[in-house]
Design a protein that fits this description.
Helix 1 packs antiparallel against helix 2 (about 55-75) and helix 2 (about 55-75) runs antiparallel to helix 3 (about 85-110). This protein is of the alpha+beta class and about 325 residues long. The two termini are about 45 Å apart. The strands form three sheets. It has a five-stranded mixed β-sheet, covered by helices on one side. It is about 45% helix and about 20% strand.
Length: about 325
């Protein structure tokens, strides 16, 4: 089977993830003339307890569904031979469906009741709870991944007493980059369009934009990482925020293995800390695990993990 062949099932799954975005756009085009300035977004029983400007609800829902769709399409574009996980389809389908359901309920109720009547959510609240099931549908449609490789004890490179070696790579993670872009668009949208509300929106604009701004930096920091292995040890640093880095010196290392990293095995994506170990997980796929003399472990996902492991194990041999 050619390495460039793509899976029809993954393309279909990506189409399912894109469907909620299409629903949001079509319903907005149909309802835009009847939509009020604000939409109900939170209920206590059948009483509306919170509203948001319509444009904000549209931006948040639309951008969330758009990012989910782009992420799913990028996953579907991965050749079959390099495909290692369906979890991305599950998550993108979940968020896309949730965004569409929230928009449909808030906007749909607002345009179907009289202006002076507060819309009651009733049993529609169950639809919000059930919406993540759409992600399971996408998961079932997506193709099963290729079998993951087992941990390998990569042979160290041979170094003479006077030789050294280095390995470096910039890891770009499209999922975090798209998430950063989405968060940035939402923050800008809140700042620019938030004041259109007819109630006191200043405090909410400030707090919401600040929180999403911080989230943007977190996503951006993880989107571009520089991974280096040399005589100083292993160093991972953000290309966006350089002072955010993690270094493990050679004298603290006991061993290094190249293996397959599964996010759920390490507590999820991003910088993870769990009992006895920590990790920087950018995706599902190959990476290295550094075993420390303290008994802890540290993992990071990288391409060419065999090369990085070989360099570090070769340098470790000189330390010993």
């Amino acid at each position: 089977m050619p390495n460039t062949q793509h899976s029809l099932r993954n393309i279909t799954a990506a189409g399912l993830v894109a469907l909620p975005l299409i629903v949001i756009l079509i319903t907005w085009l149909i309802w835009r003339g009847d939509l009020p300035q604000t939409l109900p977004t939170q209920w206590s029983g059948d009483e509306v307890v919170s509203t948001q400007p319509t444009i904000i609800v549209l931006i948040v829902s639309g951008v969330t569904a758009l990012v989910a769709a782009v992420f799913a399409v990028s996953r579907a574009a991965i050749p079959i031979a390099s495909y290692t996980s369906r979890f991305g389809f599950l998550v993108s389908g979940l968020f896309a469906a949730l965004a569409a359901v929230i928009w449909m309920i808030s906007a749909g109720l607002a345009v179907t009741v009289s202006p002076n009547i507060h819309p009651a959510i009733g049993s529609l609240g169950l639809v919000i709870i059930a919406s993540p099931l759409y992600g399971l549908l996408v998961l079932v449609v997506a193709r099963k991944p290729v079998p993951a490789r087992r941990p390998t004890r990569t042979a160290p490179i041979d170094l003479s007493p006077t030789e050294s070696a280095s390995w470096n790579q910039t890891m770009t993670t499209p999922a975090f980059a798209w998430a950063a872009l989405a968060a940035l668009i939402i923050a800008i949208g809140i700042i620019v369009l938030g004041p259109v509300s007819n109630h006191d929106w200043d405090a909410a604009v400030t707090s919401s934009a600040a929180a999403i701004g911080v989230l943007t930096l977190v996503f951006a920091a993880l989107a571009w990482l520089r991974v280096t292995g040399d005589h100083r040890g292993l160093r991972i640093s953000s290309r966006v925020i350089p002072f955010l880095s993690r270094t493990i010196s050679l004298d603290k290392m006991a061993d290094v293995q190249s293996t397959e990293i599964h996010p759920l095995d390490w507590g999820g994506w991003g910088y993870r800390i769990t009992p006895g170990r920590s990790a920087i997980v950018l995706r599902n796929g190959e990476g290295i695990v550094v075993y420390l003399k303290s008994g802890r472990g540290f993992a990071v996902t990288v391409d060419d993990s065999d090369g990085l492991a070989a360099v570090l194990r070769g340098l470790l041999g000189k330390v010993d």
